[in-house]
Amino acid sequence: MTVVDIPPPLPVRDRSDQRDVAAGALSPMLRRLAEEEATGVLVREHGTLYLAQGRVVHAESPLAPGLGVLLTAHGTLAATAWRRATEHSTSPADAARLLLDAGLLPEGALELCHLDALYDAGYFALAPSSTPGRFRYDGAPRLGPLPSVPVVSLERETLRRRLLLHRLWPDPAADSAPLIRADPAGAAQVPPRRRAVLERVDGARTALRIAHDLGRQAFHTLVDVRRLTADGLLAPMPVPTAPDPPPAGFHPPAPLTVTDPDIALLKRLRNALEAL
Amino acid sequence: MPGIDECLLEAMRLPGARGAALVDWTSGLALGTVGEAPGGDHETTAAEAAELARLAAEHGAFSAGESEDGRPPVEDVIVSNHDSYHLLRFVDTSFDSSVFLHLWVGRAEGNLALARIRLGEMADRLVLG
User: Fold this and answer.
1) DSSP B88
2) Residue with the larger pLDDT of the pair A246 and A52
3) Which candidate in A127, A154, A173, B103 could, as Cys together with B87 as Cys, close a disulfide (CB 3.0–4.6 Å)?
4) Residue B129 · residue A107 · CB < 8 Å
5) Cα separation of A205 and A210, whole Å?
């Protein structure tokens, strides 16, 4: 399991620039980089975006399983083939290109996984952060055979996903905490994909860990977790009032602000969508 | 081995095809679109089609019994109205996903039976090569 090590929160950035927020920009810096068609790497608190000529070519986040997990978890690609490809390349996007050139994967399957991984990690990378992002101009990210995504599209989709989660169940507590079954008898009517999530709830696993186990996108897992929470079938592990000293080797889940939606922004977005 | 765009362009060559999209039914995201969309907006169409696809996939009434092997429980969803057909074909992938192909076909020029067979073949080729 990937353990997220988030530094202590720094002073919150000044959010007085309401113009950009009103325009739906999740990161004013990202919007500027897109406008100047920048190429490089944007490192944010919860993830990293790779830009080539102002378009997003790849995204990574410690909160999302990533392309390698999606491709290898169910044997679509042998784990050794993925390892070999990543050893010979500088980024997962380059590795994917090598696999494509070698004919190890159907193009459609690879494009699909690539876009899934990009939007999934991008969602977390654009989550509200307590520290400013850093951009490094770098010629390495390139527009390649795999599809790239305009910054505006990733931002719009990320906002839509936040709204979707918020509508399913407004409390983000279950997104990052270890999960417990709330009603072990009530699982009869759960559809198969959601049941796979529910069956892995054991009081220790988090949504992210379940996503890794299933080789599934983290956001997809959050959708199921929120639906299951709304149905009263699972709940976040209650936080003990007087925490015991953690046993050796136990890493408490890092606190997240990932799906804490900006309600005012979401309401404006909803109104704008409904006005279309 | 076709990519997403080639697959959608191939779907557009079917008689009467007006628009096609590859859509994720968990998130409602259109991963690729081509041609027209009803109302002119592919994003809204994708979100609405995703909701329909999800209902079909998640309600036991429409699935072919228990499918624990990860295959989509439903093959396709067909909606007809007075001037067109909508065909949603679930894509069976070897990796974890929840996507379908959405084809919009004019009723006068289209051939629903042919479109259904061809779209199924395209869905297979997209992920199997």
Assistant:
1) E
2) A52
3) B103
4) yes
5) 6
Model confidence, pTM: 0.84
CATH code of B84's domain? 3.30.450.30
Domain of B107 in residue numbering reads as: 4-128
Which two structure tokens, joined as six digits, stand for A137?
Answer: 């101009």
Among B95, B97, B119, pick the best mutation site for testing chain A contact (most A Cβ within 10 A). B95
- Of A33-42, A131-140, A154-163, the one with minimum mean pLDDT is A131-140
Is the minimum CB–CB distance between A109 and chain B shorter than 8 Å? yes
The per-residue pLDDT for range A186-219, each reduced to its tens digit, is 777 888 899 999 999 999 999 999 999 999 999 9
Chain B residues whose beta carbon lies within 8 Å of the beta carbon of residue A161: 27
8 Å CB contact between A200 and A210 = yes
Strand pairing class (A234-236; A134-137): unpaired
Contact A230, A164 (CB under 8 A): no
DSSP designation for B106: E
Residue A188, number of CB atoms within 10 A of its CB: 6
Compute the nearest-CA separation of B124 from chain A (Å): 10
Instruction: Note the pLDDT tens digit of each residue in A64-85.
Output: 999 999 999 988 898 998 888 8
Total count of domains within chain B: 1
**Amino acid identity, position A39:** T
Helix (H, G, I), strand (E, B) or coil at A166: helix
Angstrom distance (rounded) from CA A193 to CA B70: 8
